[in-house]
Amino acid sequence: MQMVGERQLPVPREVVWAALNDVDVLKACVPGCESINEVGERKYEVVMQAAIGPIKARFKGTMQISDAVAPKGYSLAFEGAGGAAGFARGGAHVDLAEIDTNNTLLQYRSEATVGGKLAQIGARLVDSAARVMADRFFDAFVKALQDAGASEEGVDSSNDDRSTKAQVSGFRGMLRRLKGGDPS
C-alpha cells in the first residue's frame, strides 16, 4: 500500500515542525491512539485501537524518526502487531515547505505492508481505511493548529470538547517554547 498527499496549513513552518515533534500533539491527533511513549532517542512505543472493515484490534508497536532536518522534514519507520488481526509495517517521509511566513505546505509519502487477517480482507479495503485515518489525522492536526493559534490570541475555548482542550493545552506549551527560541 502506498499513499501520497499534501495539506496546506495556515501556520508558520516552525510551528508545524514543533507540532510534528510533540508526542502529546500527535497522540491527540492520531485516530484511536492510546499512548505514545519515548523509549530511546526519537524511538517511541505506540498503542492504538483501529478498525479496518470487520477487523477491530488493539495494535502495539514502535515508531522511529530518522533523517530529521529542522524545520524541513523527517522520515519515520513503524511496525505494529494486533494479535490475531495481523501486523503492519512501513515507513513515511514528511516534507515541510514554507509557502509564506504564515502558511506551510506539508507533503507526505508512505508505504506499508500488512499481514494476517488484515491482508485477507483485501488491499482496497485496507487502502481505503488508511486514507480515512490519514484524513482524520490531518483534519484534527489542522484544527488543533488553528485552535492553538486562537487560544494564544485570547479566544475563549470553554465550549470546546475535552479532546480539543487537550490539544490546545499542548499547543500553548509548544507555542511558548517557540517564542522562547526552542524550535524542537
Task: Outline the structure in words.
The chain has one domain (2-179): Alpha-D-Glucose-1,6-Bisphosphate, Chain A, domain 4 (2-Layer Sandwich), CATH 3.30.530. The longest helix has 30 residues, at 123-152. It is α+β, with helices and mostly antiparallel strands. The chain is built from 5 helices and 7 strands. Strand 4 (55-69) and strand 5 form a beta hairpin. The chain has a 7-stranded antiparallel sheet. It has helices spanning 13-20, 23-29, 117-120, 123-152, 162-179; strands at 2-9, 33-40, 43-52, 55-69, 73-81, 87-100, 103-115.
List the helices and strands and how they pair.
Blueprint: E1 2-9, H1 13-20, H2 23-29, E2 33-40, E3 43-52, E4 55-69, E5 73-81, E6 87-100, E7 103-115, H3 117-120, H4 123-152, H5 162-179
Antiparallel strand pairs: 1-7, 2-3, 3-4, 4-5, 5-6, 6-7
Organism: Pigmentiphaga humi
Pfam families: COXG
Protein name: Carbon monoxide dehydrogenase subunit G (CoxG)
CATH secondary-structure class: Alpha Beta
CATH superfamily: START domain
Beta-strand portion reads 35-45%
Placed side by side, the strands forming the largest sheet appear as 1-7-6-5-4-3-2
Which architecture does the CATH hierarchy give at level 2?
2-Layer Sandwich
* Poorly predicted spans: 154-168
Radius of gyration over all CA atoms, rounded = 17 Å
* Number of domain modules: 1
* Major sheet description: 7 strands, antiparallel
C-alpha end-to-end distance:
31 Å
Shape: globular
Oligomeric form = single chain
Mean pLDDT score, rounded? 85
CATH topology: Alpha-D-Glucose-1,6-Bisphosphate, Chain A, domain 4
The total of helices stands at: 5
Organism: Pigmentiphaga humi
Pfam families: COXG (PF06240)
Protein name: Carbon monoxide dehydrogenase subunit G (CoxG)
